[in-house]
Write a structure and sequence with these properties.
Blueprint lengths: L2 H24 L15 E4 L2 E4 H4 E7 L2 E6 L5 H10 L7 E3 L2 E5 L5 H38 L5 H34 L2
Antiparallel strand pairs: 1-2, 3-4, 4-6, 5-6
Main location: cytoplasm
Protein name: Ribosome-recycling factor
Pfam families: RRF
Length: about 190
């Protein structure tokens, strides 16, 4: 593996870490309704578990209400049960062929707990970024050891990887700050 391959691979993997963080943060409730909140809720459908979005149309009615319209009438009960049993703390109500999911207002205490969860997610992402930096630096050291590159090239590579790391950590901090502000907004 060459220096450019190591750098490209590290940059791609750091980008994936940022995307994973965004995905994880999207699951954290902010008190406002958004269709993505039910993405990780699984429903039993013909013997296998599938996300709600694959068996129903999830739409936002207003700022605090979701509407779930199953593609099959027989799925109203299972979807209602899956949402109720999820860790989201939602209380759906079946209304004929659709399900309404009101978003309860968050208490101040719950908002503070959620900000702690957001910070923990951010810290996990930073650890992943730092691990990728270490892997890239180890790859460069191996190339020096195998006499494929000079120590000067290794030093340049470490500086570039550090700049990449700093850039991604700053992006994580920005994402976390935005999510905290969103959660604390009443």
């Amino acid at each position: 593996m060459s220096l450019s391959e190591i750098k490209k691979n590290t940059q791609e993997r750091m980008g994936k870490s940022i995307e994973a963080l965004k995905t994880n943060l999207a699951k954290i409730r902010t008190g406002r309704a958004h269709a993505g909140i039910l993405d990780h809720v699984q429903v039993e459908y013909y013997g296998s578990l599938v996300p709600v979005g694959q068996v129903a149309n999830v739409s936002v009615v207003d700022a605090r209400t979701l509407n779930v319209q199953p593609y099959e009438k027989t799925l109203v009960g299972p979807i209602d049960k899956a949402i109720r049993d999820s860790d989201l703390g939602l209380n759906p109500s079946a209304m004929g062929e659709s399900i309404r999911v009101p978003m309860p207002a968050l208490t101040e205490e719950r908002r503070r707990e959620l900000t702690k969860v957001v910070k923990a997610e951010g810290e996990d992402a930073k650890v992943a970024i730092r691990n990728l930096r270490r892997d890239a630096n180890d790859g460069a050291k191996k190339l020096v050891k195998d006499k494929e590159i000079s120590e000067d090239d290794e030093r340049r590579m470490q500086d570039e990887v550090q700049k990449l790391t700093d850039k991604h950590v700053a992006e994580i901090d920005k994402i976390i700050a935005q999510k905290e502000a969103e959660i604390m907004t009443v």
